[in-house]
Batch of 4 targets.
Target 1
Amino acid sequence: MKQLCIVLLTLFSFHALGQDVSLALQKKPVINAQILAKAWGAVSDGLNTSFASSNVRFPKELPPQGKQQSDWETKAWKGEKVHAQVLIWTNKNVENISLQVGDLKDSQGHIIPKSNISAGFLKYVMTDEYSAGCGHRKPQDFDSSLVADVIDTKTAALRIAKNNTQPVWLSVMVPANTSPGNYQGTLNINADRDYSMPFTIQVINKMLPPANEWAYDLDLWQHPAAIARVHNVPLWSPEHFASMKKYYQMLASAGQKTITASIVNEPWGHQTYDDYPSLVKWTKKKDGNWAYDYSLFDKYITFVMECGITERINCYSMVPWKIAFTYYDEQLQKEVVFKDAIGTPAYNVFWKTMLVDFTKHLKQKGWFDKTYIAMDERPMKAMQAVIKLLKETDKDWKIALAGDYHEEIENDIDTYCIASRFQFPAATLAKRQKAGKISTWYTCCTEPYPNGFTFSPPAEGVWIGWYTASKNMDGYLRWAYNSWTKNPMEDSRFITWPAGDTYMVYPGPLSSIRFEKLLEGAQDFEKIKQLKASYLKNKQTVQLNELNKALAGFEIKVLAETTADEMLQKVKPLLNK
C-alpha cells in the first residue's frame, strides 16, 4: 500500500502564492511533523491573510509560502467574470469566521453591485493521482490527498483550527452595462477582529456577449438520476425537476449548448455510480407491433430548454458500449433485452421501427432539426451501419460523434468531437466550418494533461480554451457534469478513472475551481475570437501577429515541460490591452 502523506498533500506541497508547480507530478515529497512544526513556527501569531493566484491549489496543513499580497488588481471586460483567491491561515484556533462584500465603486459614482460579487470558503475533497489513467482502481493502490475544489457559498461562517490554511474564492461578474473605469471594493473577513482585503477591477471598454451567444461550444454531459439520489427525491418527481433546475441554469450560464438525452437504458453500460435510465419507454405489444412513450422525453427536453440549454439534443445511443436494449414485452409481461449485433437484419428492423416513429414525433414537436443521434467511438463497421440506417430512415438525420478522427465517415458527422491525440486536417476544418458543422475536441481518463481531475492544475481549464482557439476548433467536451461518486462532497475518487473524472460541480449546486477555470477558458476563447476579427477588420497587423504567435505555442506536448499557468501568465495580458 502506498503511503498516505501525513499532511495529505501530493503535487501541491510547496508553492508560492502565485506559482503553479504542477510539474511536480512525478515528485511527491513526504512532509513529516518536524517540517510542519518548523513551517508553522515561522508564522506570525493570530490570523494571517493574503490574496493569491486562482491558478493554484493550497494545502490545508501548510502555511503559504512567498510574499503576501495585501490587495488585488485585475482587468476585466464588460460581461466577464473574474476571480482570485484569498488565503487565511493561523497558528491558533479561530472561531466563527465570516465573509462580507459590498458594492464596487469608481470615482464617478458608478457601481458594480454586491449582488454580482460572491465569496465562498473552499472545501477539501479526497483525490488520488493519474498513474495508469483509465481502468478499475482501488483507493489503497494510489497516493491519496486532500485538495481544495468545492466553492462553498452557502456556509455563512466556519472555524479554522490551529495550524491550518483556509482558502476563499472571490468572484466578480462585471455587468454588461458597466461603464469603463477603476472599481474599488473590499472583502471583509470577520473573525477575532475585522480584516479588510481591498481590490480593484479595471473595467476596459470591451464587451463579452452573454453566454448563450458565445461561439465556444461547451458540452458537459448531464446526469439527472444523480441529482435525484443526492437530494433524496423520487426520480422524475416534481421535487426532482425542482432540484435539477439550478444545476441546469448554472450549466446554461457557462454557455452549454447541448442536452444529454438517453433514449435507451444505460447507454454507457452503467459506468457511473447512479443509473442512467431511458427517457423513452419501449413496449412490444401483444400483436407484435411497437409503442414508444415519449411523454417523459418531452417533459425533460422542455424543462432543460426552459433552463436555457436550447441548441441541440444529443440522443444516446444506438451504439451503446454494451449491446443490450431493454423493452417491455406485453405478451411475456416482463422486461426483455434485445442483444442482436449492430448491422444485423434483426438490429435494423428493431431500430428502423423506432426511428420512423421517433422522426415523426420530433417533427411534430419542432425538434427534429436540432436532434442528433450521438455515438461514442465504436468499431468502424458498426458506426457505418448506424449512419446508413439513419440516412435511409430520413436523409436529414443529424449525427454526433465523440471519438477518433476517421476520414471515412467525417462527412457524415455533423458534430464531430475528436480525442486530444488527433487534429482535424486544416482543409477539412475549413470545409466543416463553411458547412456550419461543429468541430470540437475532448479529454477523458486517457490524458494526464490537460484535464479536469480534482488533482489537475486549475490553470489547465483555462489552457483548454486557448488550445481550442489555437487549433481553430469550435469548443470542448467533457463527459461528466454531475455523475457523482457515493459521497461527492467528501471523496472524488471512483472505482474507475482518476479522481474527479466523473463530475465538475458539487451537490447544492456548488461550483468548483475546475468549473470556474473551464468557464474562464471559454471567456478567453471569446475574447480571442473577437480581437482577431477586430484586428483583421482594422488592419492592425502587429497586434494580430502578436496574438497568433502566442496561440501558436499551445501544443499539448508542451505541458510536459511547462505549466499551464506559466504559459497563461505570458499571454493573457494580450487580451486586456
Target 2
Amino acid sequence: MRRSIATVSLSGTLADKLTAIGAAGFDGVEIFENDLIASGLSPEEVRRRCADLGLRIELYQPFRDLEAVPPAEFARSLRRAEHKFAVMERLGATRLLVCSNVSPAAVDDDALAAEHLRLLAERAAEHGVRVAYEALAWGRHVNDYLHSWRIVRSADHPNLGLCLDSFHILARDVDPYAIETIPGEKIFFLQLADAPSLPMDVLYWSRHYRCFPGQGDLDVAGLVSHVLRTGYDGPLSLEVFNDIFRQAASMRTAQDAMRSLIALEERVGGTIGELPGHASLTAPPPAVTPTGFAFAELAVPPAAAPGATSRATSEDEAAGEPLGRLLGALGFVRTGVHAHKPVELWEQGEARILLNAGSPEGREGPALNAIGLESPDPAAAVKRAESLLSPVLPRLRDPHDAQLDAVAAPDGTEVFFCRTSQPDHTSWLDDFSEDRRDPAGAAGGITHIDHVALTQPWHHFDEASLFYQSVLGLRPHQSLELPDPYGLLRSRAVSTPDDRVRMALNVAYVGAADGRPDVAWQHVALASADIVATARRLHESGTAPLAVPDNYYDDLEARHDLGARRHALLRELRLLYDRDEHGEFLHFYTATTGRVFFEVVQRLDGYRGYGAANAPVRLAVQHARLHHRSG
C-alpha cells in the first residue's frame, strides 16, 4: 500500500519536511495549509519538489467550518474554497480534507450540512478535486464517523466521501466495527495516529499527545483492518500532532514514522490475511525473540581497565578503580581479556559484564554502552532489524574475531545479536583469552542479568518504545510516572513474553536547571538466587549498598507485616521490598560509578514487576549523594 505522512507531523520548514519525508521512503504527503502559507516556495515549486522526491501530494488540509451555517457565512466559505481549489490545482493535489464544523455559528441540522457539502462537492468537481469529510472528535454537532457517513450518504455526490481518522474514532471509544458497512469507494482517505491513554480533554489530547502507531495505547491495527475489509485502496497516512516530534530532527522523526507503518502493516496483515484485489501489505522477516542477555558492556576510561590494554594476569591490576572492585565485591571473576581489543570479560553464573576501555563513551566515566541479546538466529534477527530501518553498525574487527552484528537503539546503545553456546560455530567468547578463569568459582549468588534500565533522551522515548517492540518483538507494559526530587520520571518496561529479556526505558531530564543535575543514569539489574548472601558479601567487602533511609523501613513496617526478624534483616542489609499479586521482590542498589550503577534483585513466587514503588526512594538518595559530592 502507499504510505503517506502529513507535514504537520514533523519539525522544520516545508522544504525540510519534504526532504525528510522523501528520504524516509514515503510515497506521498499531506500538505498542511499552514506549512504552505509560511513557506517561501510557490505551489508550483512545492509540486516540482515533491515530484523530484518521488512524492505524490495525497491531500491538502484542512478546510474548516464549512457546513450547517447561516447563508452569509456559507457564501464566504464557498469563496474561500474557490481560492483553495486554485491553490490545489497549482500543487497538483486532488483531495481536500474538510473537518466537521466546530464554530458556534453551526446549527444542528444534518439536511443543511448535507446540502452545503453537496454544493462544495459540485464546485470541487469543476476543479478535479474530491472532498473528504472528517468527523472531528470535538465537532460541534458531528463528532463520530457514523454521523459523518449519514451526512455524506445523504448528500450523494461522487466527489464527496469520508476521511476516517483513527484518533478521532478511537479517542471517543466509538466501535470501529461498523466501518465495514461503508463502501470502500466512499472512504476517500485514511489518517492514522496512536496516543497514550490520558484522562484529559480530547482536543488538548489530540493537539499535543498523538504519536505514531505502536507508540500508544489505541488499537490502530484493528481499525485499519476494518477499513481494509471495505476494499479501501488509498494510502495509509500518518497525521500526528505531538509537541516532541515538532521539536525533534525531522529526518529522524520521518524514519521513525516509516518504521511505525511497516510494523503496523505487519500487524494488520497478521489479522486480515490476503484480501482479493487488495494492495499488498508489508511482511518483514518475522521477529526473532531473544532468549536472554548474553552480556552488558560498560564503556570505561582506559585507566579503569588496565588489564584490557595489555595481557595482564593480575586481577587486582585488571580490576581498576572503582568498577572492578565493585564487580569483585559482587562476586564476579575476571575470566578473560579480548585478544585484539581493550575489553575485559567478567562473569558470574550466566551474567557477563564487559569492560570496554576502547569506547569514547567511557571518557567521562563508566556508561552502559551495549547489550548482547541471546538469539536463536542472529542472521535472521539482523534481517528483521534492517527491514525496519535499523541497519547493522559498521565495526572494526580482526579477521579472526567472531561475527557479531549490532544495530543502534534510539539512545545510541548498541544491541548485539549473539549465540553464545553454538557447538557448530565460533562463539564470541572465543575472542577472549584461553586461560579464562572458571566463573563457577564466583561466590556472590548472581545467576544472570535480570533486566537493564536505559535512560532515553526526552525526545526519543516513544521512538525507543517502538524500536524495541518492532525490531526485537518485545511487548510493552504500562507507562508509569515516578516521583523524583526534581519532577516526574517517565518509565515504560518492555519484555519478551516469557520475561527472559526485560528492559526498563526511562526518560532523561531536559537539561539542568535550578539545582537539578543533568544526569542520565543507566543500570544493570543482576538476578541473585540468595540476595541476603549477596548483600552480606558486599557489606563484608567494605562496599556498602546505596544507603536507604530509616524512614523507608519505618514506612515499610506500617505497610507490610513481614515479621520482626524479616523487617530487621531488611533494615540491616538495606534491602528494599515490593510485592504484587504474583509474589515478592527484594532488591538493593550499589553506588553510582560514572553514569552506571548495579541493582541486585531476587524475585520470589513469580513477581513480575520492577520495584517501581521504591524508585522514588532510590532517586532521592542518588540525587542527595550527587549534590553532596558536587557541593
Target 3
Amino acid sequence: MPTSLIRPERQLFSYPLYWAECFGTAPFLPMSRAEMDQLGWDSCDIIVVTGDAYVDHPSFGMAIIGRMLEAQGFRVGIIAQPDWRGKADFMRLGKPNLFFGVTAGNMDSMINHYTADRKARHDDAYTPGNLAGKRPDRATLVYTQRCKEAFSDVPVVLGGIEASLRRIAHYDYWSDTVRRSVLVDAKADMLIYGNGERPLVEVAHRLAAGEPIADINDVRNTAVLRKTALPGWTGVDSTRLDAPGRIEPMVNPYGDDLPCATRTVNAGDARPVSVRAPKPKPWEKTYVLLPSFEKVRNDKVMYAHASRILHHETNPGCARALMQKHGDRYVWINPPAIPLLTEEMDSVFALPYQRVPHPAYGNTAIPAYDMIRFSVNIMRGCFGGCAFCSITEHEGRIIQSRSETSITREIEQIRDNVPGFTGVISDLGGPTANMYMLRCQAPRAEQTCRRASCVYPEICPHMDTNHEPTIKLYRRARALAGVKKILIASGVRYDLAVADPRYIKELAEHHVGGYLKIAPEHTEAGPLAKMMKPGMGSYQRFKQLFDTYSRQAGKEQYLIPYFIAAHPGTRDEDMVNLALWLKKNRFRLNQVQNFYPSPLASATTMYYSGKNPLAKVDYNSEEVVIPRGERQRRLHKALLRYHDPANWPLIREALTAMDMKQLIGNRRECLIPPATVDELRTGKKRDRNAQPALTRFTGMGAQAAGKPARSGGKAPGRGKKAG
C-alpha cells in the first residue's frame, strides 16, 4: 500500500511508544493476582480473555495484542480458558481500568468443537494435554456475558477470528440458520475485525484519555452499534452497487494527448494560480446500506447479494463503510485498516515474547505450540481469494511482509533460546509460503481494485510474480550458524510458483523434507470454478518442474495433494472423475475432508443460498449445485477413499444409480471391484485387510505412507493455505 495512503493519525506509531527502557516488561503477562503483586500492580488497564491456553509466542493472538499494548505503556493481564459456568474466574485479576478484550482464540470455537459433519471432536490442540471441553460453544458470546456479569460498567471489545467472521448477519452451519452480528448477540461495546494492532492501539489510547467508548465510532477495522449513520457520511443502497468498480487507466505523463503537448502558452496568457481543495474520492465518507438482518434471514438471494457486497469492500484503499440494520439499531462497520508497513511488522515481531507457554502449565504439552515452536511467520494476507477460505476477509488481500533482518533475528532467537531446537526450522511461511513481498505493481490499481482474487481466473498483469525476495530470504536463513535445514512444509501457491521456476528449483534443492503439500483441491472444472482455483494444468506444470529439479538435485521427493469433497458446485460425477484420477495416479488418501461452511466465506454463501456471489446475484442468476445431506456428503468423502472396502457398497450403489456400472469390476479401468458372493449373500462388507493390491505406491502416493492429511479445521498457530 503506498505510504501516501496512510494518514498520520492512523499510523501504528502515531502515539508515543513506551518501550522496555521506560517501563520494563513482564516476564509473562500475569494470569493471577500473585503475578500482579510480583510486578507491583494494583490493577490491570486491560484484561484479555481468551479461549486458548496462554502461549507467549507471536503465533498466538493474545500474545501479540498483549505485548503490543504493553509496549504502549498499558498493564495487560490474561485470563486464559476461564471457567465460563460462573463469573468468579472473570474477576480473578480484578476490575480492568479500561476494557476487557474478548477472543475465542486462534480458532473459531465451533470449528474447534465440531467436524465438518457436525460430530463432536474429542481433543483441542490449544489446550494443555490436548483436552476438549475447556471452552464453551460460541465462546465470544459466553465470555462477553460473564465479563458483563463480573463488571457491568467495563467496556467489552471483541476480537479474534470468531468475532471477525461474524461481524454482519451470517449463515451459521451448526444451527442451519442465519444469525445476527455477534456484536448484537454479545451486547459488546465494539468489535475489532481482522488483524487488530492499529485499531487496538488507537482505541486503548483514546479510552485512556477519557473518551467514552460510546463516542469512539470512527476507527478503521472496527464495528459498533448505532442508531444512525455517522455525521457527515453519505449513504448508498447496496442494490445500486452490485457490480465491481472499474479501474481508471493511468495517465501517460508523456502522451501526445495532453493539453500542454498541443498548444503553446504565451506570457500574456498567464493567469494567477488558484488552489482548489482536492476532489474527494467517491468512496470517502460514503457508506453502503446492506439489506437488513431480517431481510437476509428470510431471503436467500438478498443474503447472497449482501455477501457479494461485503467481499467487494475489503480493499483498504477504496472500501466504503457498511451499515446493516438489526431491529431498531444498525451495525456500523468501518473500512479496513491500512496494512502494516514492513517496519511496523518488524516491530510487532520484535516484542519481548518468551516463545514458550506460561509456566502455570508446567510440562504439559500444548499441541498447537509444539506444531509451531520451530516455525517462523514471514508475512500476512493472501490475494488468492479461494472461495472456501476466509483469510482475505480476516487478514486482507494486501501482503504485509517482514524484513529479512527481522526474520533471521527470530530464527536466531529460536536457535539460542527455544528448548529442544535441533537445527531444523519446521516452516518458513504464513497463510501462503510464496507470496512474500509480492504486491500489485500499479499503485493506483492497488488502491481501487475490487477483484476477489489477483490470480484467478488468471494472474493479474499488475501482480508481481518475481520470487527473488523469497529466494534471497531462504538463502540468508539457511546460511545462519546452527541452522541445518529450513523446511517449507506447506502453503505453496503453485500457480504463482510456475511463473518463476527459479523458486521451484530453490525449493526442490534445499527446502523439502521428502514431501511437499500442495492443494489442487479438485480436478474438475466445475468445482474449481466455484472454488476460484486454477485448473490442473498449473498443477501438472508445477509437478513436472518439481520432479525435474528434484532429480537434478539427486533427491527422491514427492508431492502430497489435498482435495476437498462436497464443495458447492460439485456433482457426484465430478467426484467419480476425481476418484478415477486418484487411482490413475496411484494415490490412496488416508484422511480426507468434506467442505466446511465457515462464516463469511463465499463458498458458505453458495452452500446456504444456492446462488453464486462470485457473479452478479439476482432471482434469475445461476443456481449452484450443492451437495447436501449426510448421505451425499458421505458419498463424496467415500469417493476420495475409493480404495477402502468399507466404502465400496455406498460407491457401488451410487455408480449404479448414475448409470456408471462399467466402473465396477476387476479391470484396470474400473474404480472398485464387484461385490463378492459372500457380500451378496450376507450383506457383510469385505474385510478391509483383505483388499487386493491396487498398485505399487509411488512417491505421489505419499498419503499412503502415513503422512498427515488436512484436518477439519484451521491449522494451529497460523492460517495455512496451500496453492
Target 4
Amino acid sequence: MRIRSMMLGAAMALALDAKADEGMWLPSQLPSIAKNLKDTGFRGDPKDLADLTKAPLNAVVRIGGGTGSFVSPDGLVVTNHHVAFGVIQYNTRPDRDLINEGFVAPDRAGELPANPDYRLRVTVGFDKVTDRILADARGKTGRAYYDAVDAASKALVAECEKEPGIRCSVANMFYGRDFYLVRQLELRDIRLVYAPPRAIGNYGDEIDNFVWPRHAGDFTILRAYVGKDGKPADFSPDNVPYHPPSHLKLATEGVAEGDFVMLAGYPGTTYRHRTAAEFADQIEWRLPTSVAVLKGLQDVIEAQGKADKEAGIRYASQLQSLKNNIKRFSGELEGLKRSDAVAVRREDEAAMLAWLATQSDAAALKPSIDQAMALIAQGKDVRDRDLLVGLLTSQTQLMRGALSIDRLSVERLKADAERESGYQKRDEELIQSQLKQIQRRYDPRVEKALVTSVLTRYQQLPDAQRLPEVDKVFGRTPAELTRALDGIYGATTFAGEAERTRLFAAAPADVAKSNDPLLVAARTLRPALLRIEEEKKAREGDLLRLRPAYMQALIAYREKQGKAVYPDANSTLRVSYGKVTPLAARDAVSYAPLTTVQGIVEKNTGAFPFDAPVPLIDAIHKGDFAGYTDAKTGAMPVDFLSNLDTTGGNSGSPVLNARGELVGLNFDSNWEAVSASWMYDPRYKRAIHVDMRYMRWLMDKVYPSHALLLELGVPAK
C-alpha cells in the first residue's frame, strides 16, 4: 500500500477514532468529528464551528501572549489576570499600586491605556497557500530553500496587508508540509477596565502554580477601542469602543462533574510530532539547563526588587514570566521522566520506521528522514551558546533596544521585501512602541546584574563555542565583564526616551556614526548575531524540506493505528472539547473537579502568597452567595477542572458549555500534565479554569462594578 493513499487525500486528515479528551483541532476539522462532539454532549451544530470568521469563534481573540474573548457589544474583552499583568504593571506606580490593590475603572473615561506594544488580534481569514509558498523552493536545499519559503511568505503577507488594519502571517502546519495564510484584524488601543488585586488574581503564586486544587480568580477585563471611523488606531482620548461582529454570552448557570465543555484559543507550541532524538534532547539537556539559567535571572530580579521597590515594580511582569517558565519547565521535566517519554517515543518511532519499511513509498521517504535526523543531531554542537546569546537579547530591556535600533538601521538600507522579518516597514510601529515602554521596565542596576548572570555562564563555555565579538565587548573574565558593563551603562544616553526616539527616526548613516557605548556594543555584536542567524536559517531550510517526509510517514502510521491526527499547536486558532473531570493523580490521591471559597479561607495565612484580601475574607464569612452557588452542593465555586487539551497560549481561552455560553476561563494545567506539550497522557491531562460564577460574584459583592455586570448581560443579584 502506498502511504499517500492512506492520507485520506489531505494533510488535515482526521483520526478514525478521535477521542474527546485529546486534540487541538483546527475549526475546519470539526464537522468531520461531529459524531464525537455530539456524543460528548455538544448541543449545537458542529458546522457552525467550522468557520472561524463567524460566531462564536470570531469572538475569540489573540491578546498579549494568550487568548481572550469579546463579551459585550462595546468591545469588552475578558482574559486572564496573568495575560494582562503587563498592562497592570505598566500602569502601576509607587503611589498607585494596581498590582496589589486591583483596579476598577469608575467609567469609560477612567479606563487606563495598555502598554504601547499590547495588541489584540481577531482572525478574519485562514486560507491554504502551500503551493504558492513552495513553488520556488522545490529543488533547492539549505539556505536557498529557506529563502524561497521566506520570500514567498513575505510576498503573500505584503499583498494581504494592503488592507488597512489587517495583520497577516503564514502558519506552518506539520513542519513544512502545509502552509496557511492567516489574516487578523489588529487593534492597538486596548484599555484596562477591571483587575482584581494580586492576592485574588494570583492567589497562591508559585506555590499553587500548576497545582490542583486551585483557588485563583485569574481574570481581568479590558476594552478595545478604534478611531471614530471604526478603524484600528493608536491610543487617543477621542477613540470609541470597538463593536465586535459577535460576543460570547455569559452563562447564568455553572457546570458540574461530567458536563460537556469546549475551549477555543491560540495555543502556542506543542511538540508531539517531534522525533525521539528531540524528546531526548528536551529531557536530558534543554529543560534542566533552562531551569538553571532562568533561576539565576529570577534570583537577580528578586534580590534587586527587595533593595529597591520601584525596581521591583518595573520588573514585576518579567519576574512573573520567569517564575512561570521555571515551574513549567520543572514540571515538564518531571512529567516526561514519569512517563518514560524517551523510551516510549523511541519505541513508537522504531515501530513507525519498521512499518514504513513495508510500504512502497519507503525508498522515497527514508533518505529524507535519515537526513533530518542527522541535522537534528548536529544541533547539539552550539546549543549552550545559542541559548545564552538568545537570553542576552530576550531578557534585557535597554540592550535589546540598542540591538534592535542597530539592526533596523542596517535593514532600512534594503528593499522592504528583502529586509529581515521583524524589521520590515510593517514592524517599525511595534519596534517604536517597544522602545517607548522601556522607560517603565528598565533599571540599570538590574539590567547589569541580569547580563552578568547570563555572561558569567557564557564565559565558562569551551573556546569552540565562544564568539570573538562577544569577548571583545564584554571580556573573557568576570573582572573584565564588570568593567565593561560599568563603562557601557555608566556612559550611555540610550536610557533616555528622547534619545531612543531620535535614533529610531535617524537615518542609517547617523545611527552608524553614533559613539554611544551601548550602540557601539550592539554594532560590534552584530556580525556574531548574523552568523548565528545564518547557521539557523540554513539548518531550518533543510529541516523544512526534509521533515515533511517524517510527517507523511507518521500521519499514515497514526491513521493505521486509528489515532488522532492534528497539527502541533502553532499559535493559530484551535478548539478542544471534553468534560468537567476529576483527577486521580497517584495512588490513593484523587481530586474533585470543583473548588470553593472555603478553600480560600483554609489556605489563607495572611502572608504572601496566601494573603487573601480582607474584603474577600469578610464577604466569604458574610455568605451572601445567592444566585452564584453550585446547584448541587450550595457551595460558592472558584475554579474547576476539565480534560480539555491545552498548552501555553491557551491562557485566557473561553470555556463554553454545551450551548456555547461562557462558563469559565482557562488559566493553568495541573502539575501531573505540564509535559502534555510533548506527550499527551489522558490519565493525567487536566486544564484548570476560573468559574465565571466566581468572577461575577467578586464583581457584585467584593469589588463591585455593577455597571460592568449590566454590560456583560448578567446584572448584579
